[in-house]
Design goal:
With 338 residues, this protein is mainly alpha-helical. The protein has one domain. Helices cover 82% and strands 0% of the residues. The chain is built from eleven helices and no strands. It starts with a helix and ends in a 12-residue tail after the last helix.
Length: 338
């Protein structure tokens, strides 16, 4: 009987251990199920947040694109008006034809200047609208995994547009407003029978401040570079960047170089004022095209960000998306105006 009792006791222990093992297994399994369920719910919640964030960002970007596209259309309209008048004359016979058009009045400089001021205002409005949109776009983009690249892309675009605005406003609009009075003065002297070419030194003495303001202004370097002796362009650039603003401030080692620049500038001004004006207009046309392309680049990059946000399965970097959209297959930034 004792043997049977021992056997029964062993069976009871084995049964108990089996039950306990099963219970522990069930508890562990339930714990895993609850953990997996919690993880699934959290993932669903995150997906929901992510999807909601993408919807907000997409709506924000589309709103900004719509607003900037309207401004861009105005930029194109005003810019091409100026470009067409300059480029058509240039196409006839280069700078000489452009000078003839200015001499004969076929190109109205009053009209060009007025339109250029309007263009500057268009660029200013475009930049201000783009810059203010940062406070809408950047916080939204920050919530997305790919937001960092998008934010850096936006900031670069806005900086480029601001630089373009400064080149137009502080560069060619200002340059024409300074150069034209000198050109008018020379033309009036010639009209009244004078020959200002005979005494360039006297003309400089009478207009020293106005001439120096043009020659020593770093914003005008692309223009005044045409008066710098060949091979000395970088020397003159460094001199301007040093902060010199008057010929009288120069030391003997630099007076020879600047004297040559002044002589070339004044000589051309007295011989053919409209030659200098034509040079400015040629630079203006190039600058308008560059500015228009930079504004279009900003819109294309916004479109790339929008495409990336709309399709979270698309893992292509924003820079590569933008490159694809720039091609002639889509927006053709290099050739199409709009």
């Amino acid at each position: 009987m004792e043997v049977f009792r021992n056997i029964q006791f062993g069976v009871d222990i084995a049964t108990s251990l089996t039950i306990i093992g099963a219970l522990l297994s069930w508890l562990l399994n339930q714990r895993k199920v609850r953990k997996d369920e919690a993880l699934r719910r959290e993932q669903e919640r995150q997906r929901g947040i992510n999807d909601a964030a993408r919807a907000v960002v997409a709506q924000s970007i589309n709103s900004v694109i719509s607003n900037l596209a309207g401004s861009f259309n105005q930029i194109v309209t005003d810019g091409t008006y100026i470009e067409n008048r300059i480029d058509r004359a240039y196409a006839v016979g280069g700078r000489d034809a452009l000078i003839r058009y200015l001499d004969s009045g076929l190109i109205s400089l009053d009209d060009i200047q007025e339109r250029l001021v309007t263009f500057r205002e268009r660029i200013s409005n475009f930049y201000e609208s783009a810059a203010s949109s940062r406070y809408l776009l950047i916080p939204s983009l920050y919530s997305l995994p790919e937001g960092g690249d998008a934010i850096q892309s936006l900031k670069r675009d806005f900086q480029d547009i601001m630089a373009a605005h400064n080149r137009i406003a502080g560069g060619y609009v200002a340059l024409l407003s300074e150069l034209r009075p000198l050109a008018i003065k020379v033309l009036e002297l010639k009209k009244n029978g004078g020959n200002p070419e005979e005494n360039g030194a006297a003309f400089y003495e009478q207009n020293e401040s106005a001439v120096d303001s043009i020659v020593f202004d770093g914003d005008y370097f692309a223009f005044i570079e045409t008066c710098v002796p060949s091979g000395r362009e970088e020397d003159f650039r460094r001199l301007i960047e040093s902060g010199v603003t008057r010929f009288s401030e120069l030391d003997d080692s630099t007076k020879a170089l600047v004297g040559s620049v002044l002589s070339n500038f004044i000589g051309t001004l007295l011989k053919s004022p409209n030659q200098l004006i034509a040079t400015v207009l040629m630079l203006v046309s190039k600058e308008l095209q560059l500015t228009r392309c930079e504004c279009k680049e900003a819109l294309v990059n916004l479109a790339a960000i929008s495409a990336r946000v709309h399709s979270k399965e698309n893992t292509l970097p924003i820079a590569e998306l933008a490159q694809e959209l720039r091609s002639d297959k889509y927006f053709n930034v290099g050739s199409e105006i709009r």
